[in-house]
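Sharing a chain and its predicted structure for anyone who wants a worked example. Both blocks are below, sequence first, C-alpha cells second.
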Amino acid sequence: MTENLKPENKDQVLESVQWAVTKKIPLDVRGQGTKLGMGRPVESDHILDLSGLSEITDYQPSELFVTANAGTPMKDIYAALDQQNQQLMFEPPDYGPLLGGAVDQGTLGGLVACNIAGPRRIKAGSARDNCIGFHAVSGRGEMFKSGGKVVKNVTGFDLSKLMTGSYGTLAVMTEATLKVLPSPENTRTVLVRWAKDGDADQLNNQAMTEALVSTNEVSSAAHLPAKIAARSAVAYLNSAGSAVTALRIEGPAPSTEYRCAALKQLLSKFGEVEELHTKNSKMLWKEIADVSYLAANQERAVWRISVPPTEGAHVVQRILESAEADVMYDWGGGLVWLQIDEVDQASKDLVRGSVTQAGGHATLVRASKQLRQSDIVFQPLDPYMTGITKRVKNGFDPESVLNPGRMYKGI
C-alpha cells in the first residue's frame, strides 16, 4: 500500500527525510508528478509529495531574481513575471502533453531537478545556468543551502550546478532562486522554406550555422521537416508543404526589423524566406519548446539526442537508414528529438551507436514503464564516471533513500 507524505513546510520535509533515513525506507520524491515519465521508475511505497510547498517567497524585479518553494506551479511564477514584463531567459518547456499529462502542471522543483530548457538554451543556458541558490534537505537528514539571491555569488561550492539535473537523487530541494530578465520588446522569426526535404537535410545545418555566426544575434534556431511542420498551429508552417528552418530574433523593434531584413537577405540563397511577427513567433517557439509535434501517439518512444550542432543531420541520416522515425531539430541542430516505435535492443543499439559515433549522448524521454525499468534511459556511464557518481550519491545520501535508481540502476 502506497503511503503519501505531504509536508507543508521545510521543517516537515526535514522530519520526513529523517524518518526515512532512520527506517531506511526509500522515498519517491515528486511535486505534481508531471515528469514521472522521465528517468527510471522509483520503486518505493512511500511518496514524498512536495506540492504543499507552494509559494513565491521573494520576488525583486529590480534585483532580477525570483525565489519560490519547490512545489510552486510554474504557471504562478510566469503570472508574477508577466506583471513585471519579465521572463526566465532559458524558456522552460512544458513536457506535460509530451509525457501523456496535462498542460501547465509543472513545478519549480521538477524544472530544476530535471535541468530542462527551451530553444533559447543556445543563448541563455539551461536551468543549471540560471539557478543561483537553493535550500534543500540531504539524504543524511540535514538541512543545507547554497548560493544566494545575487548573481555574483562566489562563496563556497556552487552546489546549484550539482543539484540541478540530479532528478532528486541527492537532496530534496525545498526552495530555489532563479535569475530573471526583462522580456523582449519585439520578437520576429525568419523562416526558410525548402523545396525538398532532401535538400533541407543537407543544407539546414549550413543555414542555421550561417545565421548563428552572423552579426544578427539570433537567439534560437530550429528545423522542422515537412511532416512535422504540417502539425504546427501556425498557418505559415502548416500550409508550407515543405520543410522549414526557423531563426528567431528578439529585442527593440527598430533593431529586430533591421536584423530580420539582413537575415532574410543572408538566407535567401537557400530558399523562399518568410517572416513571422510577435504573435505567431511566440506560438511557434512555444510549440518547439514543448515538443508538441511529438505529443500524439503515446505508444511511440521519444529520444532526446544532444550532439555537436554540425552532426545532428548526420546522426539522423544514419538512424533513418535502418528505422522509421519522426524528427525535429532545435539548438541550431545540436538537439534532436526522435520519435520511434517502441525501443528494442536493435533500435537502442542503433540510436546509441549513432550518437556515440558523433560524440554526443541520448536520453530516452518517453517509453513504457517496463522499458524504463531497464538501464537504458540515460547515457551509459563509463567505469570512471560510475565511480564518481556513486561517491557523490553516497556523500549526500548514504542510505540511498532519495529516488534510488531514478537515473542509474543501483545508484
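Comments welcome. The chain has a mean pLDDT of 92.
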